[in-house]
Every structure is written in C-alpha cells, then in structure tokens.
Amino acid sequence: MIIKRGLNFSRLIKEASKLIHGRQYIDHYWYLKSNPESLQPIIDNETKIKNSFFEQPQIKEIFNDYYQVSYGRKDGRTHDIPELYDEYEYNGRFAYFDTGNDYQIIERSLKGGDKEVVLDLRKIQFLKQYHATLKLTKLKISDDHKLIAFGIDLLNNEDIVWLMKYIDDDRVFRTKLFDCFDAAFTKDNQYLVYTQYDDKFRPYRLMLHKLGTTQEDDELLFEERDEQFYLDLQQTKDGKYFVLLSQTKQSNEVILIDRDNPKKIQILFSRNENAINLVHHHEEHGLYILTNKNSYDYKVLKQEGDKFVDFYCPQQGEVLQEVDLFHKHLVLYFTKESESFIKVISLEDKEIYNLYIPPTLVYTDHQKNKKNLLRNIYDRVIKNDKSQYFLNKKVENEVLGCTIEPGVNHNYKSDIFQFHLSTPLVYDQVYQYNLQKKQLSKLQDANLTGKVFKREEFICTRYYAPSKDGTEIPITLVHHKGLQKNRQNKLLLHSYGAYGVPQEIPFNIVYLNALEKGWTLAYAHIRGGNERGKDWHRQAIQENKIRSIEDLLGCAAYLITEGYTHPSLLCGLGASAGATTLGAAVNMRPDLWKCAIMLSPFLDVLGSLLDENLPLTKSDYLEFGNPNDKKIFDTILSYSPYENLKSQVYPAIYISAGTGDFRAPLWNVLKYTEKLKQIAVKSQKVEIIGEHPFIIDINDGGHYGGAGAQSVIEERTRYMTFLDYYVGIGNKEITKKNLTQDIDDSIQLADEEDKIQKQ
C-alpha cells in the first residue's frame, strides 16, 4: 500500500479497503480523490517531466516541424457565409484577442445594406480578464432584433454565465445569469426562459427572467428532480413554442411551452413511453415528431387530429440523425454505415428525393479521377437498398468519411437551406440547396493558407474486421493512395464506442501533416456508437460493455494480420469514454500497441460509479450499469482500466487532462497514472527519455482541452510528436526482419477467457 505524508493512517486503511458484494475491494490511491491537496505535487512533477521531454533537441525538431506546418495552414476565410434571420443577414467575422485566443465578431446587415456589429467580445469590459480562456457558447436574438443574449464559458470549464445587451450598445445589462446552460427570448422580447444547472452541472430547472430585474427575482417554471434526467431547451422553427426536453440517453419527456405565455405548459409525451421524441411544429400541419418509439431507430410521425401517424419510416440501414422543417419541405439528415446523406420530402405531394453531392463539386480544385465513385455508392445504398450495409468488403472513395451538418437555417418559410460538409481531407465547405429548383451549389471553401496539401494523393477506404463474436466492425482508413500492405506503415487507430455517439472522421489540420509524413489514420466504428442505429449502441452497454473492447481488439488484430501495420507501428487513440475502451484494450493486449493516446480519459470507471455524489454517476448507470448490482460490479471490475493495471510491459502512453474537467476529473486520471508508474515493467522496446515512456499533459481547461484554435493545434502537435518519436527514432523494434517476418498466431483476437482478464 502506498502511504503519503500528511494523511491519517487509520482513515487510509478504512477508505482504501471496502467490503462490497461480499468481497474486499481495495483502492490504494483513493486519497487522490479525497485529498485535493495531494494533486498539486503530482501536477508539478508531471509538468516538469513533460517539459523535459519536449525540450530534447530531437523532440523539439519534430514538434517544430509539425507546428510550423500545421499552424501555417490557416483557414483563408475572413468571415462566415451570412445566414438569413427574417430580414437581416447575420454572419461571424474571425478575430483574435491579444492573448492569441480566437473568437468571432458577430455582424449583420439588411439585404444590400451596410454591416453593423452585433457583438464584439473585446468591447465588453467584464470579459477583459478572461480573453485567454473564454468561449462564446450560444447566442440568441430577440424577435424584434433589438436584443441579444449570449453564453460565455469564462474559464473553458463548462461553467457558463449569460449576458444580455441591446444590439446598438456595447454595454451589457447589469444582471448576469449564472449557472445558466441555455436561454431564449419570449415572443414579447420582455423575458428570457433559461435552463439552470445544479452543482453537478446537470441542467435541472427552467427559470423565467424578466429583463431589467435580478436573477434572485426569477420564477421557477419546472424542476427535474430525477438525477438521471437533464433538461434541454429548444424552440420550434415557426416560433410558436419552446420545447423543453427532460431526457436521458434512452427516454425523454416532452413539454410544450407557449412563447406568448411561458407559464402555459403542456406535457406532450411522458417519460413512461420509454422513447426519445423530438418535436417540430408546422403552422398549418401541426406537429411532426422524430421518435424511436416501438423501434430501435428513429422515424417521423405527423399529427392528424389527436393522433400521430407514420409520415416517414427509414429504409433498411438508414439512421436518422436530424430533421429540419420548412414551410413546404422536410429535410432529413441521416447516416448509412456511418456515411452522411440528405433526403428531402415535399409536404405538398410527399415526393421523396435524395440530395446527391458529386465528388467533382467537393474536390473542385484537385479532382483528377473522373469516375463517379460516390454516385455508384449512392445508387447501391440509397436507391436499390439490396443490403443493410455496403455490399462489398472494400469501398474506396475520395468522399468517404464525409460529415454533413445543417446550417442555422432559421427562416422557416425559405426555399433555400445551407449545410456544411467536411471530410478528413476537406475542411468545412458550405453548400446551399434550392428546394424548389432542386439545385445544389457550393458557397464557400476553406482555402487553407501555407504549405499546399495535395489531397488528390490521399484517399479514404472502408474495410470490415471480425470481432470476437463474429460481428463485422467497419474500419475507415485515410491514407496515401500508394499504401502497401507490407506491415511497414505507421498507423493511428481511433475509437469511441459509447453513449450511442458515432466515431466521427473529422478534419484535423495536424493530421494533414501526419499523412504527409507517412501516417495512416484508421477509425474503428465499434459497438457502443450508433453507426448501425440504436441497436449498435445497445449491444455494448452495461453487462455487454466488454463488446466495445473486443471490437477494438478485433480491429487492431485485423489491421496487423492483413499487413496494414505491425505491433511496433500500431498506435491507439481514445478520448473520454473512448479512452475507457482503449485503456482496457491496452491492459488486455499490450503486445498489440506501440503507443496509446488518451485524451481527457475516463479510467477509474468502477471507483467513479460507486460514488453517487459525482456529477455524471447516475446518468452513467444507463451506459455502464450500476455497480450496486453484483453482476454489473463484476463486469466493470473485469475491464475498468484503473483496476486492471498489472505488472507487464506497457506501450508508450500520452495522457492529456484538465484541472477544470468535471466529466473526467483530474484525480481520476492521476490515480491511473500513479498506479501505472508503480506497476509497469520497464520496456526494452523503446528509447526512454526519463524514467518511463509516459507523458501526462495537464492543462488548466475542462473536458474539451484548451481554448482557441492555437491551443488545439499545440495539443495535437504534442501527441503527434510523442507518436513520431516512439514509432520512429525511439523505437528499438524496427528492423526489416521484424516487420516482414510472419505474424505470430497470438496476434489474432483470442477467445480464451484469460484474454479478457475476468476477475
């Protein structure tokens, strides 16, 4: 047992050892959670180790090369494409504080008129001391376009304050709304309704604030007492209702609130229906509901009298993600095998048509391959629907992995809507679609400055890897077109697999340079996400959470045995709950990995879920299960990364953590790292700088890293530098013989019980 000075010995013995479900549960590092003062010496020491690592000349050279190229590739745009709000066009203009933190100046104009500034955060006196860390979270505009309310995350730790002001005045109102998650104006522009969060950052109250009064005078409209439920405030596009959702990941209660009279509240759907319902209101047709009631995945219902009838049921394999309602059309955003698509339905004649995005439009400047590959995929998957998933085992396409997100599209009666498209090789293109003319046009491209990235040399490819139970797991690869299956490729495998959130394949400015340096980027679409719908999520929760880990191990084994990489070149990356999966996989099969990157990781799963006072514990029971149930306790104990650290050689590990992170608190990370350093066997496979090949990168931010684009680039540059060192000049395993010899049978995903390390 590790004893630290200044701690009460008898309390240490009592707290470190507990009898749970008839067995002794021992946590030697419990004091890091119970005694915050014990964290600072560790923070100081880990920061010293990190700085020493990055000050080494060979490391500094790698870092500078990544950073200079990546930071030089700035977005060449100076402003956003304007979005139409009633008669005004609003847009953001890119700007920087003196601290280097970036933000947007919000502007507007009447059509064809001069620009006027709506909000410039630099001009607000109250915010000057926070320029290095603040983020604008949301902005709301009153119906008369005279007032704005906006949320500011002052310290980049998700603790948000809302400010209000007249558009033509830089001075904010004296009253500030604290602990406010979201807000919106009533129709008469005299009030704000807002959701307020508790000391666990759970939005649980709906409040009514009269402009010009104090927050203490605000009126309570609704309170959610069940700690598994949290509130989400929305507004129908036609402006008639607020929609208050009291929800978990599995069900919600839907409350309609009249924007003319916010005290008039109507429960539309009860939580007892055990479904998720999202509401859209049409001024003539009534309500349209996106629901997963009586099915695994979402469908659209339409109100007819006092009943709701099916309006659109998805085709096989379609996963509806979002619905946007216009006066004459319904726009559906959906995925199929994690690929994004758009479908439009006419409300007049119910004609359904698919919006096709040609690769030649996406790759205007660099498209050389004139074969219409996306069209082929589109015809096969969207039109014919002969299979739930892609019919072939390998799909190559330069637009594979695209992410489509709707624009603001505020104007309900518009015949035009905007959406944003990104791929691993293309950053935030803005498109416009004319619903009446069925015409698509690209409005804006990123036009990156700096070193030219030759995206025509790279491609996205889709493969399928068998998991332990035989389920085929999709893997998306981003790589050079000349990739050879010779086991000599540096490969970074990303995964998440939790909360029904899909593994996205985002654009990453630092990854462009990584691709140029010979890296292959892989994304495992493991169970626990929703790539194949809600059932894909349900298959890997609670007592079946182990499947996410088995899926990841199956993907790693596939990439190795197929020759895409080698254990001495394979690295893994997981963030938040994705690091739970990666941490468990590293414990079970450390031999598969050269490095592991864990960002804001959730590593002490069992210890966290045994403490109901933590912010996310009760809501996390739906994902991981409640360890007060013995079966769930045993399941979590079998894979929780912290509990399953053991005396063995570990890969090089880079971990980032924030002192202001309430989702994956710093003590949760440092318990893991302190135990890891005590128990890990020294590796002979890497050239270690310092005592061990572990770097703990601690910042002052919250769960999502540093504030501003520069901080994000710096963090990504640090972990790519770490990877480049340990798979390159610090890698003692790389010889031609090692890389080309037959892969040992042990690399295959084992099905023996001892590989899962059940306790």
TrEMBL record:
Residues 515-728 form the Peptidase S9 prolyl oligopeptidase catalytic domain. GO terms for biological process: proteolysis. It holds the Pfam family Peptidase_S9_N. Residues 16-355 form the Peptidase S9A N-terminal domain. GO terms for molecular function: serine-type endopeptidase activity. PANTHER family: PROLYL ENDOPEPTIDASE-LIKE, PROTEASE FAMILY S9A OLIGOPEPTIDASE. Serine peptidase whose precise substrate specificity remains unclear. Does not cleave peptides after a arginine or lysine residue. Regulates trans-Golgi network morphology and sorting by regulating the membrane binding of the AP-1 complex. May play a role in the regulation of synaptic vesicle exocytosis. Belongs to the peptidase S9A family. This is Prolyl endopeptidase-like. It comes from Paramecium sonneborni.
